[in-house]
Amino acid sequence: MLLIKSIKKKEYKMSLQEEIDQKAKEIHSDSYPMSIGEIVSIYSNNELDIHPDFQRFYRWSLQQKSRLIESILLGIPIPSIFVAQRDDGVWDVVDGLQRLSTIFEFMGILKDSDGNLLQKLKLAATRYLPSLENKVWDSEDETLSLTQTQRLIVKRAKLQIQIVKKESDKDTKYELFQRLNTGGSRLSDQEVRNCLLVMIDKEFFIWLKELSDNLDFQNCISVSERASNERYDMELVLRFLVYRYTNPSEISRSTELNDLLTNKLIEFSENEIFDKNQEKEVFIKTFQLLNAALGDNTFRKYSLEKDRFIGPFSISGFEAIIPGFSKYINNYSISDIDDIASKVKNLWDINEFKKHSGAGLRAADRVQYLFPLSETNFRK
């Protein structure tokens, strides 16, 4: 069983001012305006990392991109760009990726994760500048291109850069990213975690995504297209890991499950004894057998009266199956699929499960009952 160290709470309780003073010392920041031309130079010299991998998580429309260019041309202030300085001096973009990406895409210098230049952005008409329709940064056709004067306006426009310096506490960058990118509900919780993970450990992100792409797993969870687009499937992979290695009492004490999932994700990625190969084997075998036994019915409610599965994916079903079944997975084989199916069906008729399941109950309240039930039901 993997052991993950937790930070011990200090017995001494600090006052509010002492907490402020201590945390303030852990955060080193700076702020100054930079012209877009200067920022372009830094990006071209590979001294600014906007993480092309994040692009899949952001959904700015052509109209939103065009409005940003309109704002720059009209001199409308643009929100600050937040960056975190790495040990190698490179700036990680913490907030402002879409703004910078749009500017770079329009100027024709935006690169994908493989270093290839992306196609230049062609603008749409905006409310105040309808003549932006089909305009590009530069073109041999002068009717389609910004003028030299207009390009200089863009290059000389200034953006406020907020810098979290490398001397800051190592968790500051992740905390800042999470706070800045959840306020506007632009991303789902898991999409924010995915962005964090790319910053922390890209290889771990790729590994987690590979697990989520497993066909047996995808067939078992059978979530909606919208949930899949918001990467709920990757959240379920994370829950799989957390449910295997987290005591239900710790989850019960957590005020926010999303915060717990984020913290555990960081712990997994930074823990040197976390065996990804072993976890992958357990994950693959777990869903291989569940898919063989029940397919897309695995986490749907089973009606004893109707003798069939009904309804959509149930998170309560997931919490009552995964902890126990994955723990004893090595005691099962393909010859046990009838037994597995029977045990899953029986769950839905157990009074303890009926009492403590359902979407109306918080995960923190459910798991302290469902985890022990899961272990008892699938022990073999």
Please give the order of strands in the largest beta sheet. 1-5-3-4-2
Q: What is the share of helical residues?
A: 40-55%
Helix and strand string, N-terminal first? HEHEHEEHHEHHHHHHHHHEEHHHH
Measured between the Cα atoms of the first and last residue, the distance is 18 Å
How is the biggest beta sheet arranged?
Answer: 5 strands, mixed
State the gist of this model.
The protein is built from 18 helices and 7 strands. The chain has helices at 16-26, 36-44, 62-74, 97-107, 148-156, 172-180, 189-200, 202-212, 215-221, 225-229, 232-245, 248-253, 257-270, 276-294, 315-327, 337-347, 351-355, 363-378, and strands spanning 29-35, 48-49, 81-85, 91-95, 158-164, 301-303, 308-310.
Question: Top keywords for this entry?
Answer:
7 strands, two-stranded antiparallel ribbon, disordered N terminus, alpha/beta, 380 residues, five-stranded mixed β-sheet
Write the layout of secondary structure elements.
Layout: H1 16-26, E1 29-35, H2 36-44, E2 48-49, H3 62-74, E3 81-85, E4 91-95, H4 97-107, H5 148-156, E5 158-164, H6 172-180, H7 189-200, H8 202-212, H9 215-221, H10 225-229, H11 232-245, H12 248-253, H13 257-270, H14 276-294, E6 301-303, E7 308-310, H15 315-327, H16 337-347, H17 351-355, H18 363-378
Helix pairs in contact: 7-8, 7-13, 8-11, 9-14, 14-16, 15-18
